[in-house]
Amino acid sequence: MPVVIVYGGLGALGSAVVKTFKKHSWKVINVAFDASSDADANIKVSRTDGLSDQGAQALDQIKEILSETKADAVICAAGGWQGGNAASRKFLDSVSASVKQSIDSSAVSASIASRYLKPDGLLALTGAEAVSHGGTPGMIGYGLAKAAVHQMVSSLAMVGSGVSGSVVGVLPITIDTPNNRAAMPDADFSSWTPAAEIADQLFAWAAGQTPCESGRLYKFITKEGATRIE
């Protein structure tokens, strides 16, 4: 049975990824702050632990679950949006939260992949399409964190990174989630990408149904309900 390790399997994207891979009879290991009832195994990490401790927790537990086997895919679906410019009252808080949600989760996922991903497996990290255009003055913390994730994808795909297999970045614009709809009720939902569509593409890459280019940042562009990948 093929195995996928999902970091952040409780969020909107992570839940869709867990359900999609389960639907195709993969063994799903969820790494998150809480357990997923849809996953086959759960590794709970602490919100209060530092990056090193969180990574050690995940690596030790994954070793016990996998035993002598390796994972076919490692997917980091974690990351939350944080707004605010440098003058915002909670600017530093937004930077700190973005680093934890996007950079730390991607780093732990990379560490997991370096030890437990098959040589021909897939490591996918979640970035943001908005960051590919340059600066993000209204969401500086979020932008700097996602820019770091994009750089991580490029570095991990290179020889000597410590990770074998293919490494890709997933760059949505806005994911269609209940929280986003509640926060932006007047938005054009037809331009938002369903989480299930991103999950389906991740599965297609992981299962070898469609090829992917290691080191590439794939943009998910949705218009009038139709999604294309660039």
Any overview of this molecule?
By secondary structure, this protein is α/β, with parallel strands linked by helices. It has a single domain (3-173, 195-218), classed as NAD(P)-binding Rossmann-like Domain (Rossmann fold), CATH 3.40.50.720. It is 39% helix and 23% strand. The protein has six helices and ten strands, in the order E-H-E-E-H-E-H-E-H-E-E-H-E-H-E-E. It has helices at residues 12-23, 51-66, 91-116, 140-156, 178-183, 195-206; strands at residues 3-7, 27-32, 41-44, 71-76, 117-126, 166-172, 175-176, 193-194, 217-223, 226-229. Strands 3-2-1-4-5-6-9-10 form an eight-stranded mixed sheet, with helices on both faces. Strands 7-8 form a two-stranded parallel ribbon. Helix 3 links the parallel strand 4 (71-76) and strand 5. The longest helix has 26 residues, at 91-116. The protein is globular and about 50 Å long. The chain starts with a strand and ends with a strand. Belongs to the short-chain dehydrogenases/reductases (SDR) family. Keywords: NADP, Oxidoreductase, Tetrahydrobiopterin biosynthesis.
